[in-house]
Amino acid sequence: MRLTRSAGLSLTSPWILTFGLIWAFPVVYSLYIGFTDYRLLADSYRWIGWANYTELLGDPDFLAALKNTFIFVIGTIPVTTVLALGMALLVNRQFPGRSIFRSAFFLPSITSMVVVALIFTNLLSRGGYISFLASSVGLDPPAHGFLYDNSTALYAIMAMDVWMSVGYYMLIFLAGLKSIPDELYEAAEIAGASCGRTFFSVTLPLLRPVALFVIVINSIKSFQVFVEIFVMTKGKFDTATAVYFIYEQGLTTAFRIGYASAAAYVLFVIIGTFSIAQFLLIRRKASTW
Amino acid sequence: MVGRRSLISMGGHYLALVLTAVVMIFPLMWMFRVAFALPGGGLDLAVLLSADWTIQNFRDLFVQANIGRALVNSLLVGGAVTLGNILFCFMVAYGLARYRYLTNRLLFATVLAVLMIPMHIVIIPLYLLCLEAGIYDSYWALILPWLVNPIGIFLVKQYIESIPPSMEEAARIDGAGEMRIVFRVVMPLCKPALAVLAIQVFFTNWNSFLFPFILTSRDSLRTLPVALALYQGHQAIDWPHLMAGSTVAVVPILAVFLFMQRHIVSGITAGAIKQ
Amino acid sequence: MRCLVFVLSLLWLLSASAPLAQTTVQWWQFWTDPGIRPTIVEMVSEFEQQNPDIKVNLTDLTWASGHEKIVLAFASGTAPDVVELGSDWIAQFADAGRLADLTDHAGPQRPEYQGWSMATYEDRVYAKPWILGTRVLYFNRDLLTRAGFAEDFVPLSFQELDDAVTRIQALSGNVYGWGSNTPEKHRLYKKFLPFFWSARARLFSDDGRFCVVSSQKAVDALKFYKKLHDCCGYVADQRGLEDAFLDGKIGFILSGDWLLKRIELENRKMNFGTSLVPAPDPTFGTGRKFVPGFKTAVYPGRSFEGGEFLAVSATSRNRAAALKLIDFVTSPENQIRFCKANRSANPSSRTAQGDEYFQSHPQLQTFVMQLNLANHPPVDPNWVYMETEIEKAVEEVIFNNALPGETLRQLNKTLTGLLEK
């Protein structure tokens, strides 16, 4: 495309300004702090090189938090993506009452996460509705409630997270589905393709860019899951995730912000690697039109 | 999708819809019910079944907690941030999607990089920055850092990449200038993505607690989540008032969503794309 | 032009005769819910009326995130003049030199107020006690009666508590004897330490050089706490325990004064009582019988003590005004007013404690008495680490069935390590 560079520059200037003036400093500052022993209330701090990072590698709490974070990501991303796509397909057709259902599906996403977390804490407690449901289908709910048990707490929070985020990703898939021109579907029908075949050969490939967005953004957000843990369990019962660990280390207890920043950058590298992998696997070049 | 639909397929379709809707809606219906319950009540099933209801909780919120002011603040800030994002994210996304220079790839990397740093680490330098720049405890602190949202850039960029460039080519051949093409030709095509962006940005900003809480001190600058959090007392969760508060919080976003969803589903008009 | 000069000089003259420049004091505090905030605002405006040259700017903090905001402010050099701090936060800020030394100012006020020891670090005072808090035993009288106890029964010893809890547990109808806390940060240790201290176990030796947490008394206390949990424990977080207690499902729980407020606000018609934390042997081998209701300082059980304090930041430029505000807010009359509005709370002022309002309210009386029989954790910047370790140890024993003796010995080593830092 022979397009002017100046046009490209002026178009991207809002981000260049925002990043340069606002976000560059925090990014670089936290990287730097990760190499010091800075504690928030201290007067001075020293450069300690990689000491924070080596300590992190041996910190059982950090490793447990990383493990929980991985479980969270790997457990929720596929489920959320598939369910969101399914729901988008469900409401994509023209039928009476469509917008009501669409709104209903989307409603959980726009409710405050804190409030949802509180409601679910209640639902998941020993006398709560979910325990009641579980025992009425013959399952044996944990004695003190789902959130007070090492084996169920994290999964309960994951389920809640899926429930909350599905509506939002459904909307994105819907927008993506709408960008697929009708002619392609017509062409497929004329060519005699079945519903399933059309889905896999027409719909899915054209949804790739949107699907990439959903998966990458969902991963980035899930790697940083925090609010639910903070509201529901405060990291107890093996639910501490990486960001919760960072919060605890940096902004409570001993305010070891240097240590917390180092942990944040370890997480950053992990998320970055994951995202790059996702881009390489899912993306396809835009030039194949 | 065009095609015959058997009764079974339609029935199954509706069943799936209803079941999903129930699962999604039930906790919120509960929240809605408790918002109208008598103050001092709990969250239990008994509340759902009882017939007592009152609007006292809402009245209390507006009178005691000055929710009205907080609502105005949230709407003001949310509106400004959303409008800004629609414009700026679109611009940047187009630039990144269509101008494939190396610097742009690096720029995109910074877009994603900012998303990958936990907010608790960012809050400290951002706080210091706001102090230095003199915008601490002002509307600017609530608006400026959020005017160009990386998620928005990413979303619109992906969407633009899935639009064939044929329309832009056609316009270019017709002799239209760059900016004209960008804003008059491409932007309308991006309505679905921009509508999703609007909802996304508005809603993220609407429910945001930590940054508004840390970056402001004055009562008059309180946004809705901050006002609701401060309404809770020591060691106490007042369920009816809390649920009333979250109902108040949900209504404007729902309105934005209902308004925007037409644009999401309008899609690209058929016949405009040449194969 | 001359008109303009005239107007300007007039304005200048008028401003010169205006009152002296105002001092503005920033106060950050946590009492924000609509039940109590109006009282704070009233107090502030009264203070401003009495001191026309001082203006107070109030900033509200949430209980969940307020601490973060305070730390960020101190770390960036923009701390408020007056800040409300919980007792367990004072040591860190004092150690970092962020709080003004109030020892001289506090000197003459020492006898009047209770709780100075929680604000004293390395022999200097860094904050003034405002509202204190402790934990007492709440019990459901109906359940006790059903279990066959007398109307005025109050457990005085561990044994009696054990007995009562077990008998309530045996009642039909899904009732539990004891409310056992789940591992909740900053809470679990406040529930275990009362038993620990009542058994006369200590965390550290008097000179603070040795950790003695693995003494036999400590092990016994932990075993007792575990016994209550194992046989009759309803496990939930503090909020859940209180919900269940108010629903009549639990016989005994340990809680603070906010529960009284809740009972009143929610119109719960509960037949309940409060009592002091018991001890293993109320006579301590002396054979002297303790008579409940008798104000005595030799009551055996000891509870946990904490509270809200008002401090002045070391970088404040309005120290005199700040101190005036603090003294005003913590004056006996204002404390009584605050406590009445909050329908609970324990004032730090001894005069206030003697007021009719507290003396005539049976439950508040328990709190006032328990405050005089309470211990608090050491004022040490490393306490936050120690607290975490103690909670971990208790968690291990209660929830993962680790052996008390071994766990406490391990804890002893860990705490000794922290002491040496």
Shape of chain A: globular
Proportion in helices of chain C: 40-55%
**Rounded radius of gyration of chain C (Å):** 24 Å
Multimeric organization: heterotrimer
Number of domains of chain A: 1
Plain-language structure description:
The complex is a heterotrimer of chains A (289), B (275) and C (421). Chain A contains 12 helices and no strands. Chain A has helices at 5-33, 51-57, 60-92, 98-110, 113-124, 129-136, 153-178, 182-190, 195-223, 227-232, 242-251, 257-282. Chain A is globular and about 75 Å long. The two termini of chain A are 14 Å apart. Chain B is mostly helical and 275 residues long. Chain B has a single domain (60-266), classed as MetI-like (MetI-like fold), CATH 1.10.3720.10. Chain C is of the alpha/beta class and 421 residues long. Chain C folds into 2 domains: 21-134 and 305-375, D-Maltodextrin-Binding Protein, domain 2 (3-Layer(aba) Sandwich); 136-276 and 382-419, D-Maltodextrin-Binding Protein, domain 2. Helices cover 44% and strands 16% of the residues of chain C. In chain C, helix 8 crosses helix 9. Mean pLDDT of chain C is 87; it is low at 294-298. At the A-B interface, helix 1, helix 3, helix 4, helix 5 and helix 7 of A face helix 1, helix 4, helix 5, helix 6 and helix 8 of B.
